[in-house]
Amino acid sequence: MKAIVCRQYGSPEVLQLVEMKKPEPGPNEVLIKIHVASVTRADGMMRMGTPLFGRIFMGLMRPRFPVTGTGFAGKIEAVGGDVTLFEKGASVFGESIFGFGTNAEYVCVPEDGVLVTKPDSISHEEAAPLCDGALTSLSFLKDMGHIQRGQRVLINGASGSLGSSAVQIARHFGAEVTGVCSGDNAGMVKSLGASKVIDYTREDFTQSGESYDIIFDTLGKRSFSQCKGVLKNNGIYLCPVLGLSLLLQMLWTMRSNGKKAIFSATGLRPRSELRQLLDELRTLVAVGALSMVIDRRYSLQQTAEAHRYVEKGHKKGNVILRI
Question: Would residue 278 count as lying in a domain?
């Protein structure tokens, strides 16, 4: 089969298209023929081996799992002898987490992994990116932020993969949503459900005088200290990008009442919880409450080009590989 491998940490040029043996499913695994894979900011960080503490899982000197990619959608081609949850021919989507391997024609995934069936009403292109921005955004807003109807929520980075999903999810929960993005993307963010859009090149939301129940900084561009002044008394600052300052702020604010800074590694949550979140997302897409914004589509051979585009930091929604 064809696959993209990364045998050393570095720039997109380290990604190579190779021929390798087609995997065979173990007793509790399913073999999936991949139709679509996602390309994310996190994929680029894993290719670079950053942050450095992540190499504990990924490999200290070089990637432990050379085939890149985590999010996918496809069809089950074979099942292991002990598999009971899935059948051959079923369309599925999910994420391989630390096993990687989805930038390839085939991948093996445990049946009790982050894997759910795909309804006919959802395309493979819609399903594959759900495990990136949408899964993380639902985890943060619902389980970390405990979002409530009528709350005022600000999404910083509202036009990206996490942000475009977060705007829709927050709106679904009945929040009043303010999106922060460039002026070029304001129309798109407005169409996704934001009642107000702030162009960060013209206005600093931390100086606006407005106040919010939740600030979800999807990019990690503004610190808790900078956002604290526009959080309500019991407001929550959410950020999926962990740094030393955020870690210290989390430890400090968790000991006291009032405004809090919160981080969570969505991919490290128990598989059962991630599958439950995917079930919720599947329903939201099926009923039209959530749509996946696809910015660009690449072939497997163009994976390095896709990584370079994502690294520019200007993508609208999601980037995918058609395999």
Answer: no
